[in-house]
Design a protein that fits this description.
By secondary structure, the chain is mainly alpha-helical. Helix content is about 65%, strand content about 0%. The protein contains 13 helices and 2 strands. The chain has a two-stranded antiparallel ribbon. A hairpin with a 4-residue loop joins strand 1 and strand 2. Helix 2 crosses helix 10, helix 3 runs antiparallel to helix 9 and helix 4 runs parallel beside helix 7. It is globular and about 70 Å long. The N terminus and C terminus are likely disordered.
Length: about 375
């Protein structure tokens, strides 16, 4: 990332203000701020909609699944509610020619913590999905409430433990505000060992867990589909649910996170920066995963969509009954969504299945 320079002339004027590259970056600031605000609004609204649904039970999702998904929603919401406002605030208040300060260190710590927590949460969801598919009968024993909460606590507490040195102005790594990405970023080249250790303890372990778990689930679903077709138990035209969910999930994960991690490693090893818009894209691209997760983990699931429609109907009936009746949202039309149908978390089916990508998979012997 870019290193902030503080060059002063004898009369006290700041020469960095006349840097053509810096002036160009500042000229693009309004466009970048607009992109960040739109992205933050999409992430926030998407996760609010998700939160309205999963705070109550959804058919096919166990209690443990809902806990993990609530954790993911909270981590994704932090992008729009914490990361974006903090960095935009710093971009408005900070003199771009100044060196690192305590505020930027705190903001950089928050950024890195939210990014890392999101990756760990995605990894724990993949692990939970793996257990739900391959150990359906032991699922309730393996994924107890206590173990579920411990995994969630680990995903939220371990990243701050690793990243706390970033929060100190005189710590082991420097931090600067980048006018290219409008983000307070660690200068990774100032401590190569620490920077590379973060990738080895965060990105690579999470990626390995996600890849292994989702690949095993996909292969199991593929074998199951072939067996069902062999015995004529399914139509060839039936969509491959595992491919429709797992492939986009992994593709989105690597597309959003790999460029950022590659740039981080490049900056740490070479000490060089990347072009302005490349830096802006790779820094903010992981936040878009917070919106894509709403689609891949929730909206693809039919039970989730049904419950979301029910929630909207209930809100419409409570806030504006006349308008709701005009649109056909009556109490009679909602009776089909009886609590026993949508809110039962104690069925055998629900204990042996998990997210939208595994609800249709049969137990494998």
């Amino acid at each position: 990332m870019y290193t902030t320079l503080n060059l002063s002339s004898p009369d006290g004027s700041n020469l960095s203000d006349f840097d053509p590259q810096r002036l160009q970056e500042l000229a693009h600031r309004s466009v970048k701020v607009s992109i960040i605000i739109v992205l933050g609004a999409m992430i926030t609204l998407g996760n609010i909609a998700v939160l309205l649904v999963i705070t109550s039970s959804v058919a096919g999702w166990s209690r443990s699944s809902r806990y993990f998904l609530l954790s993911l929603t909270a981590a994704d919401s932090a992008f729009g509610l914490l990361v974006m406002p903090l960095n935009l605030w710093v971009s408005l208040l900070k003199d771009y020619a100044e060196g690192p300060d305590a505020l930027c260190h705190v903001v950089a710590f928050c950024n890195a913590t939210v990014y890392s927590t999101c990756m760990y949460t995605l990894a724990t969801i993949s692990l939970e999905r793996y257990i739900a598919v391959f150990y359906p009968l032991q699922y309730s024993t393996l994924m107890t409430r206590k173990r579920t909460l411990l995994l969630i606590a680990f995903a939220w507490c371990f990243p701050p433990f690793l990243l706390w040195p970033i929060s100190f102005p005189d710590g082991i790594i420097e931090v600067h505000f980048s006018t290219a990405s409008l983000v307070c970023n660690p200068t990774y080249s100032t401590n190569v060992a620490y920077s590379l250790s973060l990738t080895c303890l965060i990105f690579f372990p999470c990626s390995i867990v996600m890849t292994y778990a989702n690949l095993r689930v996909w292969c199991a679903a593929k074998r199951q589909t072939l067996k069902l077709r062999k015995y004529g138990c399914t139509r060839r035209s039936r969509p491959n649910v595992a491919s429709r969910v797992l492939v986009p999930v992994m593709a989105a994960y690597y597309t959003c996170w790999t460029p950022c991690m590659a740039t981080m490693i490049y900056n740490a090893v070479s000490g060089s920066s990347v072009p302005e818009w490349v830096e802006f894209v790779v820094v903010w691209l992981p936040t878009s995963n917070g919106f894509l997760n709403c689609i891949f983990y929730f909206w693809i699931n039919r039970n989730f969509r049904r419950k979301f429609h029910l929630v909207l109907q209930r809100l419409a009936l409570s806030l504006c009954p006349e308008l709701a009746n005009t649109l056909g949202c009556s109490n009679t039309s909602m009776e089909q969504f009886a609590p026993g149908f949508l809110d039962n978390n104690n069925s055998v089916y629900e204990r042996s299945s998990s997210l939208s990508s595994t609800c249709t998979l049969l137990a494998l012997g």
